[in-house]
Amino acid sequence: MNSVNSVTAPAAADTAPAGAVRARAEIDLGAVRDNVRTLRARAPRAELMAVVKSDGYGHGAVPCARAAREAGASWIGTATPEEAFALRAAGDRGRLMCWVWTPGGPWREAIEAGIDVSASARWALDEITEAARASGRTARVHLKADTGLGRGGCQPADWADLVAAARAAEAEGALKVTGIWSHFACADEPGHPSIAAQLDAFREALAAVARAGLDPEVRHHANSPATLTLPESHFDLVRPGVSVYGLSPSPEIGAAAELGLRPAMTLSASLALVKRVPGGHGVSYGHTYTTPGETTLALVPVGYGDGIPRHASGAGPVLVAGKWRTVAGRVAMDQFVVDLGGDTAAAGDEAVLFGPGDRGEPTAEDWARAAGTIGYEIVTRVSHRVPRVYVGA
Ligand SMILES: *Cc1c(COP(=O)(O)O)cnc(C)c1O
Asked: How far is CA 54 from CA 60, 77, 193, 377, in A?
């Protein structure tokens, strides 16, 4: 069992020996708490659901959910039911919602664990109603409208039918419609015309719910960029994810520091080897880099098996011996190389791949640019081979 990634913060810190680790992802839970407080101040009239799907975007769902609760998150959100069950098993007793369901899913277990579930279609509502009848408990259900994202959610043409079925099941006592919700397509592009169109569609969906006689507890539509930039989208509850971990949802919204956010993860490794090589020496698979002259190479013992994107070959930035270096040649499964030029370093010296940036290190956003992706993916893909070390618990 990989206890480092699955248990409480102090135990995880215990299992990762200080100092001599190959690689470590240090998670600052104080930053998570501060970010949640910052986000709550941006949406002062709404409750906050901290989204901890995919193991808390790679930061560890259990310790991050706990930190978010401490800072006032009254809800926690996950994608899958299994992620929600793991939080219950770790002792989380608060409001908890999950939304990625497939037919035959563990509805009854979720209902009995007091987890709020989501329905985008009649098949889901019918399975929920059946499971609630079987368990004798009242299911808590959020009906999801597709207000324009074109991914999950119920299309406007099918909404009245879904709402009517929910109303009937509620009258029978099988379920309570606790939420009405939807999700943005382009909230990270302020002013995009789809934003206003989605809000209009959401208000229409809410009006249909009211006409049917349903009175949900919470109406919610806002992810991180909407929480930060769009007060009219806050309704009763906001659902930030990436910003809880201190990353900006997009450069267009602003840099993390400008938004009052602090990145919680610092990814570092110990140099495994430092050596002099002659000029004209090929480096790593495919020899896509050749030393321009006699130089010093340093071996950083992390690779795509640790979640370092191979797309960042020849491009990813690393702080070594006080300067930014660039990945020389290809990222391999377990290691990559940086060229230190005329500088020196020793095996065991620290290489910082990314962090908050205030020690001069690159950020996850810098890696995202180097790899042609988004900061979300950089932190989320850091694999379970990298021990998480928690500070600020
Ligand atoms: C991931 C997710 C969020 C959080 O999105 P961020 O952009 O990370 O804030 C909110 N709601 C749903 C449905 C999601 O899937």
From this structure: 8, 11, 30, 11
What's the CA gap between 353 and 368, in Å, rounded?
12
Question: What is the CATH superfamily name and number for domain 265-391?
Answer: Lyase, Ornithine Decarboxylase; Chain A, domain 1 (2.40.37.10)
Q: 220, 223, 378: which to mutate for ligand 1, most atoms within 8 A of CB?
A: 223
DSSP 285-330: GGG-EE-SSSEEEEEE---GGGT--GGGTTT-EEEETTEEEEEES-
- Per residue in 176-206, pLDDT (tens digit) is 999 999 999 999 999 999 999 999 999 999 9
pLDDT in tens, 317-339: 999 999 999 999 999 999 999 99
Please give the pLDDT value at position 18: 52
Q: Which two tokens stand for residue 31?
A: 């930053």
* 144 pocket-lining for ligand 1 (C-beta < 6 Å): no
| Main-chain dihedrals φ then ψ at residue 271, nearest 5 degrees | -60, 135
Domain boundaries, the chain: 43-244, 265-391
What CA–CA distance (Å, rounded) separates 178 from 53? 21
CA of 239 to the centre of ligand 1 (A): 6
- Any known ligand binding at 151? yes
**Which residue has its alpha carbon closest to ligand 1 atom 6?**
241
Backbone angles phi, psi at 356, to 5 degrees: -65, -25
DSSP letter assigned to residue 242: G
57 among known catalytic residues: no
CATH code for the part of the protein at 43-244 = 3.20.20.10
Torsion on CA atoms 347, 349, 350, 353, rounded to nearest 10: -50
The residue assigned the tokens 């932190």 is 379
pLDDT at position 21, please? Answer: 85
The residue to mutate among 183, 234, 235, having the most atoms of ligand 1 within 8 angstroms of its beta carbon, is 183
Q: Tell me the β-bridge partners of 296.
A: 276
With a 6 Å cutoff on the Cβ, whether 242 touches ligand 1 is yes
CA 66 from chain centre, in angstroms, equals: 15
The label of the residue with tokens 């997009």 reads 250
**CA 78 / ligand 1 centre spacing (Å):** 9
* Per-residue model confidence as pLDDT tens digits over 3-20: 333 333 444 434 455 554
Asked if residue 223 has its Cβ within 6 Å of ligand 1, the reply is yes
Tokens of 39: 């986000």
